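TICKET #2291
ISSUE: user wants both folds in one file
ATTACHMENT 1:
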Amino acid sequence: MSENDKLEKIVEARLKLKARFEEKMLQTPSVSDEKPMGTGPVNRHGMPQLPVGQIKTTKWPVLDLGFKPDISLLNWKLTINGEVETPKELSWQDFMNLPQTKDISDFHCVTTWSRMDVPWVGVRFSDLAALVTPKTTATHILCYGYDKYTTNISIEEALKDDVLLVHTADNKPLEKDHGGPVRMITPQLYAWKGAKWINRIEFLNKNKLGFWELRGYSNTAYPWRNDRYS
């Protein structure tokens, strides 16, 4: 199969997957909320640019569990399994051979700072999902990091076009402090929903709490509802 054929197959599978969840995606609060809380001009999702309780910053504070794993590109792997038809384990080269997406989006941390207009390069979560074909029973994902961190996300949030597994930020390779070589970003949710140093995505047939969710953080994490804690 040629590279063009592979790309067409991934795009076709992604579009079919999105069609399955399109209605749920349109009903998520970060798209459909009629009374979002925040200030500033309307962003591309129809929400105020700066969510309630947030402060703009140009800095990128470093937050983690106190352990920063040092993962070489040679040793990095991404496992995608669970409620899927075709589980995969991707090497760095496999990951880089997938369609690469450039995007600019905002980064909202639950600790009240927001970093605006960050340029990213990475692979859409929806393209990764298209590789493994989630079963009809799949409702959520649980993301795992090399630092033993976990976080849960509903599939309708994860499939949004701006949810990426990024290897580049600010036009340079993602630094280890911020989750390099690869982390997930979730621009329409608080940033703890994007695992740093990501190494596994598990599709689930029911919701399962992650590290911070087990410790009182919100399951859903919508910035424009001040949805920080359960």
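ATTACHMENT 2:
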Amino acid sequence: MPTLIASRPLALLLLLLQPLQFKILRVGLDKSEEEIEQFEDYLEELHSSGPAKPLTKEAFQRCTIIDPERPLIDPDYCTDEMKMKNVHDKFRCVREHFFLQIAYEDLQKICKNLFVPCKNGVKKCHRSRQLVEGVYCNLTRGARMSDCEYESSYRKGHVLITCRWQDDIQEIIPAYVNDIMVLHTDVKGNSLLHNEAQWPF
């Protein structure tokens, strides 16, 4: 009976060559030390078995803030943008995601607003005072990149976000978009939020 090593020589060879390949890649990259270090951290996180690290300020901007040129009502918006912006959880499809059409600086200011309940009822979200346009992405098919397909829903309402402290830049930053609370109107035409009593300004 062949041993495991003898039956899988290519896999073993690739494992042994990984550090060497990365050293060659490091030399060939025309990047700053900081960019190379970020890339190494990214690779390390991809191959780790623990939970994903929270997004940095730059990563959150890249994955969440969207270009105003593309129509937000495009039915393929999410499927295309999730691939273009490389949004995934260690190459697994994320179940839901929000893209927002807002300046990052305006989104960051929301972190100073009072706590309100998130959509799961836990009071740890901050809500925007102004209306924000965005797209809600809901996974409809696929398990791993790039087979993920999403349903895209245009939304306009008050955005709910969670925030966290980022040590290296000494700032409170947006960490996660929890929801966009869509406005509804009552029979008199007054604007109401879904479950408005739970959402004080």
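RESOLUTION: both attachments delivered.
EXTRA DETAIL ON ATTACHMENT 2: Confidence is low (pLDDT under 50) at residues 19-25, 195-201.
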